[in-house]
Fold this protein.
Amino acid sequence: MRSESTSYRGLLAIENIPLVLIAACMSRLGGRMFSLLIILHALSRFGSHEFAGWLSFAGMVPGLIVSPVLGALLDRVGAQRAIVMDLIVSSVLVATLVIVDVLGLASQSTLLLIGSIYSLTNPLGAAGIRTLLPRLVSAADLDRINAVDTAIYAVVDVLGPALAGALFSFLGGTATFAVVAVAYGIAASCVIPIQLAGGHSNCTGSIWRQAMDGLALVVKEPTLRGLAISYSLYQMTWGALVIVVPVIIGLHFQAPASDRLTGFLWAIVGLSGAVGALIVGRIRRTGRERIVMAIGMGVTAIACWPVAACIGSAGLVIGLVIAGMAAGPIDVGLLTLRQRRTEPSKFGRVLSVSMSLNLSGFPIGSAIAGMLVGVSASGVFLFAAATTFVAALLVRFIPPDQAPA
């Protein structure tokens, strides 16, 4: 394993890194496309917003519920096998959706069933990638590989919905789902050749006990508990922004111009996050993750209020760009600190539970913003700023690194 810090180009020369990064890009692109496509397809086929909402729920919540068990399974079988399992299941399920649609058998119950099963293995791939990457690089390279990982997420957040919408418009739902199935297949073909020594544990105890052990570890361990609480609060901010930004734009522009402008703004946010992640990844900051996260969250709070709330349209754009730039360092700090303070043999169950807890803040923030936005849009920005400011304060309670004896 390499001990010196490596450049971004140098990372690509490390064995298996290019394959894992391609797999991460293709699998996340497929996931982002699928999450939008399934809604567009449901609306086009059945014309029911209520059903579309339940379909979105089915495509996410079951996987979050079983994430502790899947995390224990990930530790048992190893990250590489778990990722392949998720990718193959996802590819087969999406291909099945294509087949039933071609045969005219795609009912509401069929889509709900496919969406629910699809969500059940997602934590294996999501946590598996972030379990595998630290095993392939030295401790000195954690910041940089996490920066690349975060940048991929940010870019896919921009490209995925745009590509899904464009293909759906030109090719229709069936052909676009076929593209998603192929993307998952390509990702799986990249991970299958990877050979790692000691890829899985020999534990034969109760998987349920291991799952509860992972949940208890995240709850009891001060660093993991602190990250879960502070980052979920931070995600409430983004959940609120997703609701309030389209409302603000809709007050000044008519559809479809408002829709295009909203998409453009979120594209800028995603690209800003990628830039911020790559910049911070070049800075050696092991042991300073808490400070970087706290500063980033504080900057985000200011970007939400007063910048985005009180300086008109220009302030909204500037505030979102600043928040996007700050998101990169925050995410890289979270990933690196969590990896450094987690026992490698428990990466799977810890990351699976931790990632699910982190995501929980987003829908909560959206729900609260939905209730507040009808009263005061400025109040939503203030709420977003307050939650991320509290998150910044809570980061300071995460234990610092122990000084060497």
The mean pLDDT is 86. The chain is about 80% helix and 0% strand. The CA atoms of residues 158 and 264 lie 9 Å apart.
